Amino acid sequence: MSEELRDEVEAINSIYGDDTLVPAGEPLAYILTLPGKRSSLRLCFSEAYPSEPPAVLGTHHSSGGRKGSGARDLALFRDVLGSVFVPGAVCLFDALEDFARRLEEEEGHDEPEAQPQVPIAAQPPGHERDGRRNTAEEPSPQIDMPASDTSPPQWTLSELLVDTKSTFIAHVAPVTSPAQARQYVQQLLASDRRFRTATHNMTAWRIRGADGLVTYQDCDDDGETAAGSRLLHLMQLMDLWDVMVVVSRWYGGVKLGPRRFAVINAVARDAFVRAGMVHDKDKDKDKEKPKKKGR
Asked: Which domain of life is it from (predicted)?
C-alpha cells in the first residue's frame, strides 16, 4: 500500500466515520460506504495509485429504499470519479463530496432526514467542555437563528491534509460583516455533521468597510490555543480583506507539537490560493514594467 493511500484511508475515516473505507479482505481492495449510508461499493486500488484511478468493481450493499438505487449510485459514483480524478492526486474525498452534491441535485433536495438549518447547540462554535468539543449523539438544545437574507456561503476548500494521523481541511469565503462571518460558521456546523464532530474548528476573518475607515478583525481558537490568532496573522501578512477562513482538525491521537501551526496555516493558505484571493506580486511587478519596443 502506498503512503498516499494509507493517509487517504485515515483521512476518509476521520471525517466520514471509522467504517467508511474498510479493507475487503483482498490486497488493495476496499469497501466504500457512500454518504448517507445508502449504498456501499467495492473498490480496488492498483500499486500505482494515485497515478492510476481506483477501479469500481460493483455494488457491495444497497439500502437506498428504492428499486435500482444501488445501480444508480454505482453509475453516479463512477461518473463522478472519472470527472474528479487527476493522475498523481488522491481523489476519494473530492469524489465523495461531488457524489453527495450531485445526488442532492438529482433528488431535488428530497432527503429522508433533512438536517435542521439551525445551530445544533446554544453554545457558540468555540465552546468546549473538558477541553474537547461535545460531540455526543444525544439531542442538543437548539436555538432559533434570526431570519436573514444571507444566502449560504460559496465555500472554497483546501486540499485535505493528513499529518501523523490528524486530518486538516480549510474553508474560505468572502464576507462583508462580522455578523455574516459568524452566521457562515453556524451554517457550516449546522449543515454538516462531519464538521460538528471535528476536534477543533478554528476561525479568523478580516473585514474592511466600504469607505475603508472601519475595519474588523477577529479570530477563535476553538480550543487550539493561539491557532486563531496565527490564522489572523497569516491573513495580515497576505493582506487579505473581506474574507474568512475556517480550519477544521480531526485529532488522530498523536500530538504534533508546534508543527501543527504550520500545518493549520498551510491548509488555510492553500484555500486562499484556490479561491483566487492571493495575488502574485512578481506577476504584478512584471505588468508594471514598461515593455521594450521592438526594432
From this structure: Eukaryota
- In whole angstroms, what is the distance from residue 152 CA to residue 43 CA? 34
CA distance 250 to 199: 5
Q: For the residues 132-154, what does the mean pLDDT come to?
A: 47
Domain spanning 156-274: which superfamily?
Impact, N-terminal domain (3.30.230.30)
Q: Per-residue pLDDT averaged across 196-222, rounded?
A: 90
Of 8, 2, 11, the C-alpha closest to 250 is 11
**Which residues sit opposite 30 in a β-bridge?**
23, 43
| Start-end of CATH 3.30.230.30 domains in the chain | 156-274
Within its chain, how far is the Cα of 226 from the centroid? 21
In the block, residue with C-alpha cell 469500481:
56
**What pLDDT, on a 0 to 100 scale, did the predictor assign at position 198?**
93
* 96-106 residues labelled b (16+ CB within 10 A) or e (exposed): bebbeeebeee
